[in-house]
Amino acid sequence: MTPPVVLAPMAGITDLPFRRVVARFGAGLVVSEMVASQEMAQEKPSVRARARAELGLGDARTAVQLAGREAYWMAEAARIAADGGAEIIDINMGCPAKKVVGGASGSALMREPDHALRLIEAVVGAVDVPVTLKTRLGWDDACRNAPDLARRAVGAGVAMVTIHGRTRCQFYKGAADWAAIADVVHAVPVPVLANGDIRSAADARAALLASGAAGVMIGRGAQGRPWLPAQVAAALQGLPLPRAPEGAALVDLVAAHYQDMLGFYGRDLGLRVARKHLGWYADAAGGTPALRRALQTATDPAQVLRLLPDALSPEPTVVAA
């Protein structure tokens, strides 16, 4: 079996323009940023936009990730996402953000496994497409209940489980515990993906070895490097790696992504949303801090495009005499 390599859902990051860029390099499955189920079902336009699934890129598939607290809204949002072209519905029970947890959603549901199961059952019953689940290891070290929740979720019809190798209370501190994911792998008969701190093919191999997982999900490692999931997938299969773009090819890629963001969000919001991506691209390219700042603070799209060739050039290395 070829280990799947999936782009993780990241709030405010894995929007449609970013997923398009990642998919162009050959990633087989990309996941939308987290979508609030009630707001989506109540037709809030900005929320519906997060769930758009039409990549238009051949074989690339899109999963839409839903978050929520109420079974009715989760089911309604799942139907809307599936009708809109989502090939998989992913349920978020792992987000550690205070705003999400404060609404008793995301990883807060790991403290209420009976209620979590009711949400899962509602989503599975609402759609014909596969339903998957993403969680953490548990709420904290005293409540590492991911294996039990995964077992119950699979019993309700979940087709795949992704585990971030930290508890909610760890947020993103420390190192992801890939070995702890093995408990979930042993608990369920469906594929389990390992997530957390996977920034290279070597990390992916180590995560697979430690966890016994069927594949990996890459999140923050793809920021500024949208080609990374395809490179990791190729490495795991023993295939030639897609080349990371450099020079003019990198400038063309970033310019196209930038213009796609402006078209998707509109000029003013697009300028603001693009700043973090431009910063990540500049960091990955080794550009100078001054040009990075100039790129992120420019208020004219034409100025941004003019700055790209210099901002994406590696900072010269000073060699001591």
TrEMBL record:
<dbReference type="GO" id="GO:0017150">
    <property type="term" value="F:tRNA dihydrouridine synthase activity"/>
</dbReference>
<dbReference type="InterPro" id="IPR001269">
    <property type="entry name" value="DUS_fam"/>
</dbReference>
<dbReference type="InterPro" id="IPR004652">
    <property type="entry name" value="DusB-like"/>
</dbReference>
<feature type="binding site">
    <location>
        <begin position="9"/>
        <end position="11"/>
    </location>
    <ligand>
        <name>FMN</name>
    </ligand>
</feature>
<keyword id="KW-0288">FMN</keyword>
<keyword id="KW-0521">NADP</keyword>
<keyword id="KW-0285">Flavoprotein</keyword>
<comment type="similarity">
    <text>Belongs to the dus family.</text>
</comment>
<dbReference type="InterPro" id="IPR035587">
    <property type="entry name" value="DUS-like_FMN-bd"/>
</dbReference>
<feature type="binding site">
    <location>
        <begin position="219"/>
        <end position="220"/>
    </location>
    <ligand>
        <name>FMN</name>
    </ligand>
</feature>
<feature type="binding site">
    <location>
        <position position="65"/>
    </location>
    <ligand>
        <name>FMN</name>
    </ligand>
</feature>
<dbReference type="Pfam" id="PF01207">
    <property type="entry name" value="Dus"/>
</dbReference>
<dbReference type="InterPro" id="IPR013785">
    <property type="entry name" value="Aldolase_TIM"/>
</dbReference>
<keyword id="KW-0820">tRNA-binding</keyword>
<dbReference type="InterPro" id="IPR018517">
    <property type="entry name" value="tRNA_hU_synthase_CS"/>
</dbReference>
<dbReference type="GO" id="GO:0050660">
    <property type="term" value="F:flavin adenine dinucleotide binding"/>
</dbReference>
<keyword id="KW-0547">Nucleotide-binding</keyword>
<dbReference type="InterPro" id="IPR024036">
    <property type="entry name" value="tRNA-dHydroUridine_Synthase_C"/>
</dbReference>
<feature type="domain" description="DUS-like FMN-binding">
    <location>
        <begin position="7"/>
        <end position="309"/>
    </location>
</feature>
<keyword id="KW-0819">tRNA processing</keyword>
<dbReference type="GO" id="GO:0000049">
    <property type="term" value="F:tRNA binding"/>
</dbReference>
<keyword id="KW-0560">Oxidoreductase</keyword>
<keyword id="KW-0694">RNA-binding</keyword>
<feature type="active site" description="Proton donor">
    <location>
        <position position="95"/>
    </location>
</feature>
<protein>
    <recommendedName>
        <fullName>tRNA-dihydrouridine synthase</fullName>
        <ecNumber>1.3.1.-</ecNumber>
    </recommendedName>
</protein>
<comment type="function">
    <text>Catalyzes the synthesis of 5,6-dihydrouridine (D), a modified base found in the D-loop of most tRNAs, via the reduction of the C5-C6 double bond in target uridines.</text>
</comment>
<feature type="binding site">
    <location>
        <position position="134"/>
    </location>
    <ligand>
        <name>FMN</name>
    </ligand>
</feature>
<feature type="binding site">
    <location>
        <position position="164"/>
    </location>
    <ligand>
        <name>FMN</name>
    </ligand>
</feature>
